[in-house]
Amino acid sequence: MSRSKADWIVGVDIGGTNIKVGVVPFDGGTPLAVRVERTEVQRGAKFVVDRVVKMIQDAIEEVAKAEGAGTDAFAGIGIGSPGPLDRRTGTVISTPNLGWRNFPLRDLIRNAVGLPATLDNDANAATYGEWWQGAGRDVDTVVGVTLGTGIGGGIVLNGVLHHGASDAAGELGHMTIDSTGRKCNCGNYGCLEAYASGPAIAARAIEGLEAEVPSLLPELAGDPNSITAETVYDAVVQGDPYATEVLHDTAKFLGVGLANIINIINPDLLVISGGVTKAGDHLFEPLRAEIRKRAFRVAEQACKIVPSSLNGTAGIIGAVACFKKETYGSV
Amino acid sequence: MSRSKADWIVGVDIGGTNIKVGVVPFDGGTPLAVRVERTEVQRGAKFVVDRVVKMIQDAIEEVAKAEGAGTDAFAGIGIGSPGPLDRRTGTVISTPNLGWRNFPLRDLIRNAVGLPATLDNDANAATYGEWWQGAGRDVDTVVGVTLGTGIGGGIVLNGVLHHGASDAAGELGHMTIDSTGRKCNCGNYGCLEAYASGPAIAARAIEGLEAEVPSLLPELAGDPNSITAETVYDAVVQGDPYATEVLHDTAKFLGVGLANIINIINPDLLVISGGVTKAGDHLFEPLRAEIRKRAFRVAEQACKIVPSSLNGTAGIIGAVACFKKETYGSV
């Protein structure tokens, strides 16, 4: 497909909590007309698709007006969604957080908007975005880790997003770090996600409070059962020793998983995104210490570990990069 | 470098226990003049290098005579060695099993033999060998796992050996599977190698016998402390229930590690090599069951898990593949 007169590509980042849409200049740059809305997945798949389509149409209209651009200035839509999924058919095979099974997400959006579209895993897209425009723009090999309701990952090797044999590569959240450890939502025991996802951080914090340790957490949350990962970060910033311990444990668990990644992939860069990065050095210092302890020295020394530099838009930018790569063969 | 008249390349596979050398036809095929000798690393680095050089010279002489070939028929030498190592300088940075540090292995061999040489990690080479000529010859993405005194790994992605940022990729043996588990030789806790290497299998077998369970193992080994992984496989074949349990546990630990690999890399094929594969279905059945339990379904279904098909010569063949790739740009 030739570029023709296209100046813009729409990026869509569908998550379990929020949908983000933005319009990215063809050659990269800050997304315009960015909008964020709740996914409200409990209202059903049709509702979510209609909402995504409306957000895309509104964003296109906004950019078209502001830039005086015609319809032919928009090349298409890159979509990132939780997986596993099939890129070729544009189908989401299954996604626990959204409840979809064999759902033809790409074509529903493409047909409703009337523009070509591509589908890729959301964490893959975010990592590709970091490589194209963000923290990884000067290196070849980047592993991205997204910490949220779940833990996702993406792997860019020598500038190419690694999809694997069945588009399932980079599922870092379900790496076992303790084979007889905490039960994970996936049914297994000891997955990284069972320790370091947002809900897991909250669950560990609540469990520890049963021993009646002094902490700001119950007060900040209103009641102990309303504690979230955000409450933990807030309490850490306010100097709460118990919350700091919970975060420190999180950093250690995460360090075990990331040391495994460093030993296996030996990347130039690990980019970490998600709410937990707000804790800054409270997270990164014990995290780096655990990695130094567990990873091979030559691999650990070659790898920088940084937070995302794209301010929550890595998924949008990366979905656009995926669209470019699939449509034109390069980014 | 052009191929000129070269018909043969020498492959060298240096391990903690044995050195293997063979001569491989330029376009692939069964290695000729294969020889295996003990490494005897305790006799020092010079002794080992002299032994390797003598083995190479003897192998070249044997093939030259048998094929009526002149010196210019031999293009060079591919060397596989435990790492970490630096391919560019041909230096072994450190290797716990051999005790070498910053050791210019490649150039010592090159200068003594008088042929160009390349150096790569032994498990990388073995995996590349499987991809070129062995179990992986029909697929794009192969992960190899070598189970011996240590556990090594190699990753071939879309036909390219993945070295990573500092030639350290594929170190699967020091993946943490139990962050507070068994102590590993590397100083950490819960590495895959601490459960499923040969010495770890023997150590777990000996520990369990302290509870005085009935087993053929002490009799087969002479005394309990002489039990090795080989003794365990022999006892399994003779139907010993305790040894079968030890092997079954090994398969489960290995399954945890390989499920992690499948979730991260999503390969077409996992090739397992080393003594433990002699246990056949006693190993592979519980191994596949654990992987099915822990890996993403779409990733697990895409991945065949097989023993090496190169009968102990994957390291030789793969070292030759590495030489070809580095010298001519392709295999």
**What strand line-up does the widest sheet of chain A have?**
3-2-1-4-8
CATH topology of the largest domain in chain A: Nucleotidyltransferase, domain 5
Question: What integer is the average pLDDT of chain A?
Answer: 94
DSSP summary, beta strand count of chain A: 13
Percent helix range of chain A:
40-55%
Hey, which two chains have the biggest interface? A-B, 49 and 49 residues
List unreliable stretches of 5+ residues of chain A: none
Shape assignment of chain A: globular
Order of helices and strands of chain A: EEEHEEEEHEHEEEHHHHHEHHEH
Structural class of chain A: alpha/beta
Organism (chains A, B): Candidatus Kutchimonas denitrificans
Protein name (chains A, B): ROK family protein
Pfam family, one (chains A, B): ROK
InterPro entries (chains A, B): ATPase_NBD (IPR043129), ROK (IPR000600), ROK_cs (IPR049874)
Describe the structure.
The structure is a homodimer of 331-residue chains. By secondary structure, chain A is an alpha/beta fold. Chain A has two domains: 8-131 and 312-328, Nucleotidyltransferase, domain 5, CATH 3.30.420; 139-307, Nucleotidyltransferase, domain 5, CATH 3.30.420.40. The first copy, chain A, is built from eleven helices and 13 strands. Chain A has helices at 45-67, 105-113, 122-133, 193-196, 198-209, 217-221, 229-237, 241-265, 281-294, 297-301, 314-328, and strands at 8-14, 18-25, 32-38, 74-81, 85-86, 91-95, 100-103, 117-121, 142-147, 151-157, 160-161, 269-274, 304-307. A five-stranded mixed β-sheet of chain A has the order 3-2-1-4-8, sandwiched between helices. In chain A, helix 1 (45-67) crosses helix 2 and helix 3 packs across helix 11. The longest helix of chain A is centred in the last third of the chain and has 25 residues, at 241-265. The radius of gyration of chain A is 20 Å and the shape is globular. In chain A, 54% of the residues are buried. At the A-B interface, strand 10, helix 8 and helix 10 of A face strand 10, helix 8 and helix 10 of B.
